[in-house]
Task: inverse folding
């Protein structure tokens, strides 16, 4: 499974990448939204993991741009964030095409892996 991990914290990137690679995921980590758009275009990911609080380009802006590419509408997006969100905020994200929201650090790596597997099966 090809995963694009959009995360600016290098420690989180290293930890998540190492864990998922043990289970045969191909992880392509990028720090920002523009870099993510280019990486997605060249890798055709099965799922995108997005930290909504990106530097220099908000995760919301990324979602708008990502969903403007019709070829990518089938790709599930998992928002993985430190920000606690209201149900209204989660509903707004889902209207932008987000498939699921998980909270870090409350989510374990195993829970993240299980959610990724579930999203890919659901969107296949």
Result:
């Amino acid at each position: 499974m090809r995963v694009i991990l959009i995360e600016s914290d290098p420690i989180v990137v290293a930890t998540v990448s190492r864990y998922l690679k043990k289970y045969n995921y191909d992880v392509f980590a990028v720090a920002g939204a523009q870099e993510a758009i280019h990486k997605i275009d060249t890798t055709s990911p099965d799922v995108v993991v997005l930290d909504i609080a990106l530097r220099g380009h908000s995760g919301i802006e990324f979602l708008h741009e990502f969903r403007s590419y019709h070829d990518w509408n089938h790709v599930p997006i998992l928002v993985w964030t430190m920000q606690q969100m209201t149900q209204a905020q989660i509903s707004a994200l889902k209207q932008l095409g987000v498939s699921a929201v998980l909270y870090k650090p409350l989510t374990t790596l195993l829970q993240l892996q299980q959610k990724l597997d579930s999203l890919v099966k659901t969107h296949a």
In short: The first strand starts at residue 2 and ends at 6. The chain has a mean pLDDT of 88.
